[in-house]
Here is the input.
Amino acid sequence: MTEDRTLVLRIVRGDMQAFRVLIRQHERLVAHMIGRLIDNAEDREELCQDVFLKVHEKISEFNFQSKLSTWVATIAYRHAINHLRKNRIKVTDISEEESFTDRFVAAEGASDQFEEDDINKWVLKFIGTLPPQYKAVLTMYHLDGMTYPEIGEATGMPEGTVKNYIFRARTMIKEMVNKYLGKEEM
Amino acid sequence: MSNDEELQNEIELTGSGSGPDAQVYKRIFDALKREPDFKLPPSFADKVIYKIEATRESKTEMIWLGLGVLCFVIAGIVAIAMTNYKFDFGALKFISGYPGLIAFGATFIAALHWLDKKFVRKPV
Here is the structure.
C-alpha cells in the first residue's frame, strides 16, 4: 500500500515515468478484463488505452481505501460493460430456473461447432458464451488472483453474489463440457 | 451447499477429487488459469503516454488560441473606438437574401463533422 501511495502521489505531481510504471504493473490485469469481455479484436487495444487514460484522469481522486489494482480493475470493468451496452450487447443475469446447457449449447450439432481436440480450447470457447459479468468474475478470480471482496468492490456486486456467480459459471461450463463429451461418445 | 459446490471447493483447496466431474472440473480450473491470446504490444505504455501528452498540448494550444482571439477582439474594439469606424456589411449584404442557404451550409458542415467523429476510426 505504501508503494501504491508513493506511486500515486508521484503521478498526481505529473511524473509520467511513475505513470509508465503504473501501466506496466496493471496492463496485464486490464488486458485480461478487456480481452475476456470484448470479442472485437480491433476494439481491445483502444479500450485498454481508454482505461489507462481514465486512470490518469481520475488518479487524483483515488483515496487509498482499496488497493490500486482493485481501483484499476473497477475502471476496466465499467469501461468494458459500458462499451458492451453501447454496442447493444446484453449484460444480464441468467435466471436460476433456466437450464444452463439449453441456454448455451445448441440442441443439435453442438459437436460440429467445436473441432479442436484440446478440452482447454473448448472450455475457453464455452467461457466466451457466458454473460459478461460471469466472464469478468471468473477472470478476476482465476487469472488475476483477486479475492471475493476485491472482485465485489471492482464490480459493485455483493460478495455473496460474486461467489455465486463463480460457482454457477464453473457449473455451467462443466455441464457444457459433459454434454459435449456425451455427444462425442454417442 | 450442493455437491457441485463442495466438489469445486475440494478441488480448489486440495487439487484433487474423485469421480468424472472432478476430472472435468480440474481441466476447467486449469483452463481458467491460462493466459488469453490477447496481449498488449510492448509499446503500449508509450502509446498511452503519447496520447496523454498530446491531449495536454492540445489543451495548452486551446488556451493560447482563446487568449489570441480575446486579444483580437480587444484590439478590434480599441481600433473601432479610436477611429470612430462605422459598420457597413457591404458585399456581404447579398447573403441576407439567402438565409436557407446559410442554414443548409452550416448544418451540412456540422453533419460531416459529426459523421467523421462517429464513424471514422482514429489510428491507435
